[in-house]
Write the structure tokens for this entry.
Amino acid sequence: MLRLFLFALLFVISDAWAGSKLVLSGYVSVNVKDSSNSVFIPAEGLGKIIVPEDVGQMEMPVIELTPEVISAGFVSRSEVDRQIRIWNERYPQNALEVQGTGIVRIYGYSKIIGYQRVKSLAKAEVEEVLKAEGFDAISVTSLSSKAQDIRLTQTDIRLDVRPIEIKYPFSRLCVWVDIKGEDDDLIRSVPIWLKVEAEKNVLVASRDIDIGENGNSISYSVLSKEISAITGQPLWSADQLDGMEIAKHLHEGEVISMDKIRLVPPVKQGETVTIETVAGTVYLSSRAVALQDGQVGSHIRLQSISSGEIMKGIVLSRGRVLIEGDS
């Protein structure tokens, strides 16, 4: 009678666990400290355990991954099933059925780099660059919140942040952090997206400014602007306007940036310049009116004051133009 009761009890327990499954995933990461030894991981480390709702806490089997399996880079479902069957024979009340993919790829790693460490490094570098650019009231926060820690097979590594190029305007910035090995070999690159808030004192047009205005005629004020409102590399000092003129029309309140100014041309349209001609050992000079602006080395059209002839020449320096022989 007692035997019959125990058999019935075992049947009830085994039946209660019926439907418990280990569904293998296609890819797992395994911490391998010594490749010459086996690694033992709980069954749930290879996939998802599914048990009926009315089943309580159950003890899970442990799967052995031999050095050969780790070296091959995968474990087959048949091997997992073999080990689970042995477990089921020992603990029939905890029986599991193996399902899922036929092969579980194994990625062995020996070092973990915390993702938070990588983010902090990128954030600190951006803050330094912004300070060097003259920004203050700096706030840099991460937009990458769900990324996982980084697992590597190498142990001797270093982190390098790539040079950060500031392009205006922006409120978000992608910073690349390179993970390199002992021989400076690139192992992996990690993109970090950051939200950036910062302010900077910049030159702002205090009235509408026309193309060609330069020197004291450029009317500006110094105002603090948020980084997302700045277009182009901004000017922050009056010294940056020395020898420059406005290249694009500016509206009142517009930030004066490098793309909106240019060097004052050494020859300007309408100016009287000295034109020089060299023929062998003979040097001749006369006067002409520039018909267009010209930088050093550029070709411009001129009109001779004495003859009215239209000619072409190369700007040599301020107020000097060389007339070529076939002009």
In short: Residues 42 and 62 are 4 Å apart (CA to CA).
